[in-house]
Amino acid sequence: MQGKQMDEVLKKAEVLIEALPYIQHFNRKIIVVKYGGSAMSNAQLQKNVIKDVTLLKLVGFKPIIVHGGGKEISNWVKKVGKESQFVNGLRVTDAETMEIAEMVLNKVNKNLVSMVQELGVKAVGVSGKDGGLLQVEKKYADGQDIGFVGEITKVDPKVLYDLLEKDFLPIVAPIGLDDAFQTYNINADDAACAVAKAVGAEKLAFLTDIEGLYRDINDKASFISRLTASQAQELVSGGYIGGGMLPKLSNCINAIRGGVNRVHILDGRIPHCLLLEIFTNEGIGTAMISDEEGVV
Question: For position 296, what pLDDT does the model report?
């Protein structure tokens, strides 16, 4: 073997050795991955994410995917001659839009199942309706009626535990039922946060369309690689966070305070961002930790 080839082989060995303590630590631990945004609409990135999650499963983790489908829902709404409307980032969902959303989310769900199984891991796609997984009530946006949008009131994770115990990879579509068994669309970030808390996940990873969290979005030097839940709350209270990041950050804080050990905000546009965050010392993106862990 030539010197250059030997160097490449040794580098690969170093990467595996660096990953070893993380594999040991997270063996048999549950990790929830919220999957959506550009990583879902780009075919190559989609394959990379699924490869990452499949690898986590094969090295002993217990991943659960909670997916969105907002862009594809908007495309189908447009195909039937309707315009998508949003209030505070939530889709206004009338009866027809709800029917479209459920159709699209189920289609996305089974496509992800196929992609995982193509890589040799058995997956099962469920919606929040299955087994009473996600129970909801009608959600309002600042008092405004936005239709069939659900606020999660209870999570019954039994179906997820059963699937994990039988060595399946669960893939969850964010749809739920209320007490009258009416179907509701659920914000995928909300669903991922609720699922992560309910199963006591070790990690919750949000794949987003930004690099992570900034104190000032216009100043790249203000990037925050690690912060506690209290520090995040101070950013929210201080008005540093706005737009679509505000509800996402609130979900991260709720997850940490609900018992999730660590939450990650990752740029899903970066190939294999999940593996880089979990298996390398430097990591990428923003990690949120508990206040107790932040005390040195």
Answer: 41
Return mean pLDDT, the chain: 88
**Cα separation, 48 vs 255, whole angstroms:** 26
134-179, pLDDT tens digit by residue?
999 999 988 889 999 999 999 999 999 999 999 999 999 999 999 9
CA 20 to chain CA centroid, nearest Å: 24
CA 175 to chain centre: 15
**Nearest to 186, CA basis, from 111, 241, 258, 129:** 129
136, 93 Cβ separation under 8 angstroms:
no
Stretch (H or E) spanning 63: strand 62-67
Supply 16's token pair: 């595996």
Arithmetic mean of pLDDT, 58-67: 93
In 233-292 the beta strands, taken as DSSP E runs, fall at 262-267, 286-289
CA distances from 220 to 152, 212, 233, 295 (A): 35, 11, 21, 26
Angle at which helices 158-165 and 188-199 cross, to 10°: 70
Cα gap 160→168, rounded to integer Å: 9
